[in-house]
Amino acid sequence: MRLRSKTADPVVPETADGGAAPPRVSRGVRWLSGTLALLLVVYALALVVLRPPSPGSELAFGDLQRKVLAGEVASARLLDEDARVVGTLADGAQFWTSYPRSDTATNDLLRSLFNAETPVSVQTQTGKAMVRFVAQFLLPLVILANLFALLFYATRSSGDGASEFLLFGKLGDKRVGKARTATTFADVAGARESIIELAEVRDYLADPKAFEVMGALPPKGVLLVGPPGCGKTLLARAVAGEANASFYSISGSEFVESLVGVGAARVRSLFAQARAHAPSIIFIDELDGAGRQRGAGLGGGHDEREQTLNELLVQMDGFSPSEGVVVLGATNRPDILDSALLRAGRFDRHITIERPDAAGRLEILRLHAHKRRLADPEADLPHIARRTAGFTGADLANVVNEAALLTVRAKASSIDRRALEEAVERVLSGPRRAARLIPPAEKSRIAVHEAGHAVVAAALGKAAEVDKLSVIARGNGVGHLAMLEEDKAVFTRDEMAGRITIAMAGIAAEEMILGQPSTGSEADLERATNTARDMAGRFGMSRLGRVRVLREQGEIFLGRDYLASHDVSQPTLEQLDSEIRRILDEEETAARNILDQHRTVLDNLTAALVEQETLSGIELERHLNAVAGYTRPTPTPAAGSGGTRKTPLR
Ligand code: ADP
Ligand code: MG
Ligand code: ZN
User: Is 197 among the residues known to form the active site?
Assistant: First the structure.
């Protein structure tokens, strides 16, 4: 895909195939280097023309004089400009002799030739004299002047210090060019809303004049915000492809280099080129690398990043709406961007790209499966889309690719559901740990644990969502229970509590059947605790009343964290803690009750799991159908507290 070396200039426009653009250097430089080449050719030609004729063999000057006196020279021609005599000897052989450029020697030779009555002609060679003058004096001057002009032009036209000159020749054929990308909106699936937003950018780039005529302010900077792998880069390229605009891509971290001023110079050079090749899109990937809040770093306010950022701001202000340049930025951390970047006239338009929902995932899977041979895409892809809640577009592309690889490895003719499912799990948690042998005792403990989860889930009416049960470890986990997650945005209190019950079921089953818990429940406990904390602290689902005492902390896309708000009193916090405790205890008890009630189902399921290692489909259903529904007792509100109870807040 995109390879970028650290030393290469980052401003490498990409073509459809990701390769380098055809050479294009700025006009002055091109003209000057053309002239230079021409001059050098002329110089070489002149040198050829100036070569004195040398027929036959060379005679020393003394020998020639002797032969003249002896009458052995049949004829001679004196070339004045070349200071050379060419002629024929009495025996017919040709000769040439160069003589010293002094009057006495020439006179001596001429006199002896005349005395010997040899036929002599003298050529003054005025043409040759002029050529020599031009070649020896004028040409070198002109060539030097041209070279200086070239130097001057090359350094100035890039606006980038000496870099274009230094790169000229070496990288000159790679860096500039009206590159177009072949990506279009059709290559992006499940992002309809983002595409609608970006269509305006496309319309503007396709016809900047129309905006100018209407006096409409076009988009200048658009920030794509979203978790990694959701297609931000893809969308940016698609806009360029749709509008048939040049695409300049650079990543924020490339701006920030150790050499002082390099980052700022790069920004300048990038904008200069984009403007020269308008309409164009400047895409700054991982914008947070360059646009971090100023003054936030260590080492004072004069660090490199700050310079770069300032230059970026200056450049964004510097181009007018009619120029046909749009800056697209991408980041997964909009919260740490400098606010100056986000104000009007800069990155003032934000497009949030979310992880795709089930329908979106299906679309993305279809898109990536399109060119591959699937056994039954109509049935398999919706199934996989349902199982992959939380996957990004990149994950899904990866799933399809992994499935294809697995199919190749198995030498099968088409990608079937098994391969797709295996691929999902590979992407989710690394390849199957084939090398690790599970000791029998551990295996039965894992079976008990997972069966516990499944039985409680079934009792809570989620039997249909339990998709697969396995004692085979994947990635870091031990065993696993695959549940089909619904794409739900709103959860009731009972649903939240049910999650905790299911999470607690593993450890409860272990304790009930094997007498003690194990370390295998850490992740379950973490999930349960977080859910209980959310219920009490965020959603007003506890005896604390309808109040939100936790505030969000950290980056939206890098896992959320909730801390106590600043204005929550100590007693409230203590109450929050005890509510979390109570919820966890109650749900654990509920899990125990359910398991007690279905001890035989639990035992049967465990046995089946130990034997078969993996259970799914009808077989799993057969076990879980024996589980009766569980009715949750209505929670008793704390004395004096109702839905409207006011929690003491400072
Ligand atoms: P980001 O820049 O947000 O980190 P990319 O644009 O680099 O993500 O996406 C990586 C890859 O994932 C893309 O090249 C594409 O193959 C796939 N992908 C991501 N989102 C989508 C989508 N909505 N439709 C199709 N493919 C997608
Ligand atoms: Mg990206
Ligand atoms: Zn578990």
Answer: no
